[in-house]
Each structure stands twice: as structure tokens, then as C-alpha cells.
Design goal:
The protein is built from 2 helices and no strands. It is mostly helical.
Length: about 170
């Protein structure tokens, strides 16, 4: 029959403990330094990445600040351009209105002068016709021809007396 041993044999147990200890020491000697180096390199790489990320973040903040300043400057410049254009437009409008008023005044003065000239022409023509009529009437009344000088004097006197009182009022 079989006998069941609950406890291991001492020799096997001691040999297994010694071989595990030897294996541990060999692995520690062979793997501990490379593992420490690997972990140190990994820690340094992570630290370098964090430092680089912080530096990039700082640079990004600087660029963002520059962009915002540039954007604000562009907005101010655009506002200034619009204001300048408005001022120039108002100035041009005022110049055009002033020029139109000046031209209207010139046209009005020309029209007034033309009216005066036409009035003078009409008066002269009317005086001439009145003189001719007066001469015709006078010659019929007197029934004789007057000499040129006497006739002219009479016409001028008639025109001066009648013409000035009628045309001036």
C-alpha cells in the first residue's frame, strides 16, 4: 500500500530552497542593474517629455498671446481705416455740397445778369418803338417833318420823362 507523506522530505526542501536562492542571486546579479538602468532611462525620458511638454505649452501660450495682440492690432487698424474712410466720405460730401452751392450761386447770378440784360434790351427796344411812335404822332400832329436834331431831342426828352417814371416802378 501507499503511504501518504504530508510533509516534504527535508533534503528535497533544502535543495529547492538553495536552488531558488541561487537562482534569485544569479538573476539579481544579471538582471538588477540592467533593470535599474532601464527604469532610470525610462524615468529620465518621461521627465524629459514632461519638460518638453511644459516648454511647448509655454511657447504655445506666447504664440497665443502674440496672436491675440496681432488680432487686436488688426482690429484697431481696421477700425481706424473705417473711421478714416468715414471722415473722408464726410469731407467729400461737404466738398460736393459746397461746390454744388457755389455752382448754384454762380448759375443764379448768371441768370440774374441774363435777366437784367434781357430787361435792358427789352427796355431799349421798347424805348425805340415808343420813340418811333412818338415821332409818327408828332409828325402827324405838327404835320410837318422835323429835322433830325430837333426830333432826337424831343424823343430823348419824352423817353426820359415817361420812360423813367414807368420802368422804374
Amino acid at each position: 500500500m501507499f503511504t501518504v507523506h504530508i510533509l516534504p522530505e527535508w533534503t528535497n526542501l533544502i535543495l529547492q530552497l538553495i536552488s531558488t536562492l541561487i537562482l534569485f542571486l544569479v538573476l539579481r546579479a544579471k538582471l538588477a542593474n540592467p533593470m535599474k538602468e532601464f527604469l532610470n532611462k525610462r524615468a529620465e525620458a518621461i521627465k524629459a517629455d514632461l519638460d518638453a511638454a511644459e516648454l511647448e505649452k509655454t511657447e504655445a501660450e506666447k504664440l497665443r498671446a502674440q496672436y491675440e495682440a496681432s488680432l487686436n492690432s488688426a482690429k484697431d487698424e481696421a477700425r481706424e481705416i473705417v473711421d478714416t474712410a468715414k471722415k473722408r466720405g464726410d469731407q467729400l460730401k461737404d466738398e460736393i455740397v459746397a461746390e454744388a452751392k457755389h455752382e448754384a450761386q454762380i448759375i443764379s447770378e448768371r441768370a440774374t445778369n441774363d435777366i437784367e440784360r434781357e430787361k435792358e434790351k427789352a427796355l431799349d427796344s421798347l424805348k425805340s418803338e415808343v420813340a418811333d411812335m412818338a415821332m409818327l404822332v408828332a409828325s402827324k400832329v405838327v404835320n410837318k417833318d422835323l429835322d433830325e436834331k430837333t426830333h432826337k431831342n424831343m424823343i430823348d426828352q419824352f423817353i426820359n420823362e415817361v420812360g423813367e417814371s414807368k420802368w422804374q416802378s
